[in-house]
Amino acid sequence: MLNRRQILGAGATAGASLVAANAWGATQNMGLPEAAVMETAETQTPIRPSSGPDYQPVVTLNGWTLPHRMNNGVKEFHLVAEPVERELADGMTAYLWGYNGQSTGPTIEAVEGDRVRIFVTNKLPEHTTVHWHGLILPSGMDGVGGLSHPGIPPGKTYVYEFDLTKSGTFMYHPHADEMVQMAMGMMGMFVVHPKDPNFMPVDRDFLIMLNAFDIDPGTYVPRIMTMTDFNLWTWNSRIFPDIDPLVVNENDRVRVRVGNLTMTNHPIHMHGYDFEVTCTDGGWVPEHARWPEVSIDIPVGAMRAYEFDAVHLGDWAIHCHKSHHTMNAMGHDVPTFIGADKRALTKKIRKLQPEYMPMGTAGMADMGEMSMPLPDNTVPMMTGWGPYGPIEMGGMFSVVKVRRGIGSDDYSDPGWYENPPGTQAYEWTGELPKHASADSAATQITPKPTSKG
Ligand SMILES: [Cu+2]
């Protein structure tokens, strides 16, 4: 059964493929290929190759793949650098710069041995370039403004053309006014599939670009001068609870490719499995050089792909292990109240503001449950509801959903996992030894008030 998301997704993909198909028929005209535009932040169904070697197309979470056309054996793509409106979450839109209607930009997919011709039209108010991070290409195609070629002036189109000499996962981003343009969301992934379909095949191949923004609550435009204190930690310019799950069929071979174009490292941790790094942006890791991990640190300006066999059914969290990166719109100047006695203060404030509620004295979990009034265009700091209560996360968090009987092109959310009887943590209702009683637990961190009464 199709849900609203799939219908939108299928429609959008069909539309995008249509552009490519029409353009194919018109290759003899040699005009600029049509620039496909994506209007939603919904994950698009992957595009299977219609010619050349077969490959398992990648799924860009909350993103899409740029259609191409063939022109005398050359794969032609058209990127448009432009201001975009991106839904970072349902109910929060950001005014960013991106490509072809979205930030992050569309994923470019091609095959080892292909020659690609990429038209880049600049609709920004200032010049830009595109640097093809990790690809082996002629120096003049490297996209460093002023070094490789002049910046692309506003309103102009430049052509990049080169052979894809190796397979792997690469990235693209401006190398012109780079600090500003990347803070505004300009980046995307470039996947080159192996020429040999039997080289390290997988059944599911997911793409995540780690990026970050600093957008004050109630506003729309990122602060471009921020170096470390970003407040929105995003995957493909999307935040939890609105990052789509990674939907996987039992026993699938799964690859997750994670690129980092933020200004700090992100230890990506996935529950329920151990796995191995199989690829960096430098190339594939030989089998004898891999070691097992449960968290993979993704350095700044780098990509790591890891793989696993989906043998453990369940809902498994996947997230950055820096706890501040699984929060939304963090204010870092919030004081710590754990252990503080706010009763006297609360009494005074309630004379002026009867609904006042003190928070934070027993931790901040109450923030995950309560809906407090927020400025417009702002999402809560920790949020998301699971089958058993608030998940209390934000930012860089999603769920890997491993199920039995998922169709090979089905990425729709299967709902929550039902734990088989006897396999879920439960409350102990029997006797407790004296030293473990509930009373003694609370007194460990909360000092008793000095005046009892
Ligand atoms: Cu992180």
Layout of strands and helices, then pairs:
Layout: H1 4-25, E1 59-60, E2 69-71, E3 74-89, E4 92-99, E5 108-111, E6 115-122, E7 131-133, E8 157-163, E9 168-173, H2 178-183, E10 188-193, E11 204-213, E12 232-235, E13 246-249, E14 253-260, E15 266-270, E16 275-280, E17 283-284, E18 292-293, E19 295-298, E20 302-309, E21 314-320, H3 343-352, H4 366-369, E22 383-386, E23 389-393, E24 397-403, H5 438-445
Parallel strand pairs: 1-11, 3-6, 5-10, 11-14, 13-24
Antiparallel strand pairs: 2-3, 3-4, 6-8, 7-9, 9-10, 11-12, 14-20, 15-19, 15-21, 16-17, 16-18, 16-20, 21-24, 22-23
The structure holds copper (II) ion (CU).
Features:
single chain; 453 residues; mainly beta; 5 helices; 24 strands; globular; binds copper (II) ion
Indicate the proportion of strand residues: 25-35%
Structural category: mainly beta
Mean pLDDT over the full residue set: 87
Helix content: 10-25%
**Any low-confidence stretches, pLDDT <50, length ≥5?**
1-28
Sequence of secondary-structure elements: HEEEEEEEEEHEEEEEEEEEEEEHHEEEH
> Which molecules are bound in this entry?
copper (II) ion
- Strand count, sense and closure of the main sheet? 8 strands, mixed
Task: Figure out the total of helices.
Answer: 5
Gross morphology: globular
Distance between the termini: 62 Å
Indicate the radius of gyration in whole angstroms: 24 Å
What's the count of strands?
Answer: 24
Report on this model:
By secondary structure, the protein is mainly beta. The strands form 5 sheets. Strands 1, 11, 12, 14, 16, 17, 18 and 20 form an 8-stranded mixed sheet that branches. Strand 3 and strand 4 form a beta hairpin. The protein is globular and about 80 Å long. Bound molecules: copper (II) ion. The site of copper (II) ion has 6 residues, from loops. Copper (II) ion binds next to loops.
